[in-house]
Specification:
By secondary structure, the chain is mainly α. It is built from 7 helices and no strands. The longest helix is centred in the N-terminal third of the chain and has 20 residues.
């Protein structure tokens, strides 16, 4: 489950040389948490992007590009699972653990 999100994150979020892996993975986790909270708040899937934008998120604007990639995945999760699971924390742990692999894959995709 989280591997799909990890793969989507490496495709959807830019890698910035000035960001540490902790910062980048943290921003990605914040994006997922915002989407998860929108789902828990019963925001319609079509309104998630505008709802999150209206909340003035604290992550850098380029991470907004990941939102459309993640929304369908989060919205297909069962509500009972979303209430029990912190998808952002899971993504952050996976991102940190696989940082070097992610960087290598992004370099390969850019070539």
């Amino acid at each position: 489950m989280i591997r799909y999100v990890l793969a989507a994150s490496l495709l959807a979020t830019p890698v910035l040389a000035k960001e540490t892996k902790e910062e980048s993975c943290g921003y990605q986790a914040q994006v997922i948490q915002a989407i998860q909270q929108a789902r828990l708040d019963r925001v319609k899937q079509a309104d998630v992007i505008s709802t999150i934008a209206a909340s003035n998120p604290t992550w850098p604007a380029q991470y907004n590009a990941a939102i459309p990639q993640f929304v369908p995945w989060v919205y297909e999760q069962k509500m009972r699972d979303l209430r029990k699971t912190d998808l952002g924390a899971q993504l952050q742990a996976q991102c940190l653990e696989n940082w070097d692999k992610i960087q290598k894959m992004q370099k390969e995709l850019n070539n």
